[in-house]
Write a structure and sequence with these properties.
The protein is α/β, with parallel strands linked by helices. It folds into 2 domains: about 5-115, Rossmann fold; about 120-260 and about 290-305, Dihydrodipicolinate Reductase, domain 2, CATH 3.30.360.10. About 30% of the residues lie in helices and about 30% in strands. The chain has a 9-stranded mixed sheet. A hairpin with a 2-residue loop joins strand 13 (about 250) and strand 14. The chain is globular, with a radius of gyration of 20 Å. The relative contact order is 0.17. The protein binds NADP nicotinamide-adenine-dinucleotide phosphate. NADP nicotinamide-adenine-dinucleotide phosphate (NAP) binds near residues 13, 37 and 66.
């Protein structure tokens, strides 16, 4: 590939932490412009809005949309209508229907749409998938418990409707679970805990099963102080599998099986270049569908107000 002229929109934490280094390290891309109301990227042209950017820099071929999910759809429509391939940060949108609409638009315009799930590219996820494919799973427990004050300080959008609350990290766990399990699962019950002053949950649990009667429970909590947990534990006929540290480390019966340096965003950008080259889209909505099901099925508990 001769190089993709890329632009990034919504310059905030994840762009600075991950997108900029990943793009800089990948020779398939030339970062040519950025659009953000306040944020800027040094050394390239910056614009206050995606509209301005698209009309001023027609050479842009692809756009990464990294603003919060509630504000992504209109920007994605503008980019697709202007003939650009689109990379969507996770979660790909605020609703299932709007992302389905984007997928249809990309398809109709012969463009690639990438609904990225960075946690699926964590180092030990593929090894976990292979391990589970070769055994019978008796039960699985997902524990995603972190301190929201540490990881999302003063991020108002995350507490607003469509911001997903604790499912913002929880959907990362669901993106891994839906990759490593051999069969589709579905929710049978859920509980969502909403702070009395917020529109999105601070904690949630979901029970799932599958066609074989799998016993799967996921617990998400943002009130965790001290040790943070991003663990998936499966009891299987071949021993107890622990996929820990958000998919970075795999052990079976206490013995380390797989651990490698983290490379999630470099791999996401490699995948985006691959689908552009192949003329395909990659839009798996399963993790978002499970979150939507939890909102549909969930028992709602109102809990103590949360203040940053
Ligand atoms: P963020 O820093 O709070 O937001 C990113 C940028 O989006 C902001 O700097 C802001 O830039 C723009 N923005 C905010 N509100 C907006 C609005 N109402 N309309 C248009 N633009 C708006 O968030 P983030 O942590 O980077 O997360 C962004 C996305 O990446 C989320 O979907 C998140 O789930 C995902 N993600 C985050 C992390 C992480 O560790 N933070 C990890 C993986 C994925 P301007 O004010 O300059 O427009």
């Amino acid at each position: 590939m001769s190089g993709i002229n890329l632009a990034i929109v919504g310059i905030g934490k994840i762009v600075r932490d991950q997108h900029l280094p990943a793009v800089a390290g990948n020779g398939d891309y030339r970062l040519v412009a950025a659009a953000s109301r306040h944020g800027k990227v040094e050394g390239i042209d910056n614009f206050a809005s995606i509209e301005e950017m698209l009309s001023a820099v027609p050479s842009i071929q692809a756009v990464s949309l990294c603003m919060p999910p509630q504000y992504r759809y209109p920007a994605a429509v503008k980019a697709l209508a202007a003939g650009k391939h689109v990379f969507l940060e996770k979660p790909p949108g605020a609703t299932l229907s709007e992302v389905a609409d984007l997928a249809a638009l990309a398809d109709a315009n012969g463009l690639s749409l990438f609904a990225s799930w960075h946690s699926r590219y964590a180092p030990a996820v593929e090894a976990a998938r292979q391990f589970l494919a070769g055994t019978r799973i008796r039960s699985m427990r997902v524990t995603w418990k972190e301190d929201v004050r540490q990881w999302h300080p003063n991020q108002e959008w995350i507490w607003q409707a469509g911001g997903l609350g604790v499912f913002d990290p929880g959907i990362n766990a669901l993106s891994i679970v839906t990759r490593i399990l051999p069969r589709p699962v579905f929710a049978t019950a859920a509980t969502l805990e909403f702070p009395e002053n917020r529109d999105a949950p601070i904690a949630a649990s979901i029970d799932f099963t599958d066609a074989s009667g799998l016993d799967l429970r996921a617990e998400f909590d943002w009130r965790q102080t001290g040790r943070q947990s991003w663990d998936i534990v499966a009891r299987t006929d071949a021993g107890e599998m622990v996929l820990s540290e958000g998919g970075a480390r795999l052990s079976v019966d206490g013995k380390l099986v797989h651990e490698q340096p983290e490379q999630e965003y470099p791999l996401l950008y490699r995948r985006f270049a691959e689908i552009i080259k192949a003329g395909q889209s990659d839009v798996d909505l399963t993790p978002l569908r499970h979150v939507a099901d939890a909102f549909m099925l969930g028992r709602r508990k109102i809990v103590e107000a949360f203040h940053d």
